[in-house]
Amino acid sequence: MATPSRSELIDAFNAFIGALASGGDMANIVDHLSKSQSPEVIEYGLTFLAPFLGRPFVGAEGVANYFNTIGTLLTWKDMGYSEHVVDPVARKVSAKGKATWTWKSTGQSWPETFTTTVDFDEELKVTRYQVWADSGAAYLASRGELRNAEES
User: Hey, what domains does the chain have and what are their CATH numbers?
Assistant: First the structure.
């Protein structure tokens, strides 16, 4: 395949992110994953802070496990992306995301700004999804301690 255009990559990024934001319909998410390469998801952070942090989730089953884990523990609203950085040669899009997250078991919420990078194969299917986010807020919210930390 020829080098994709900036708009083709942003369209592929938005389609994948749209599948995620639509509530986690796993069949829709899997449709966006590479069939020619083993897809991978990693959300960077210390593994003991949350079960979805600090380790790669590999293959379609691993990716599904990551998103199912997120969906079991968290809800989100008002998710949006801006400041896209596109590398057509590497077939990669990075963007700044914003959302409000809630840890379901404690009901504690926090606004967050995070960074996402998505790599694509020749068919503009996702090969790697990386997230850099506020793992400290997630950890405190999971323990019901976010409000105490905000007040001190």
Answer: 6-151 (3.10.450.50)
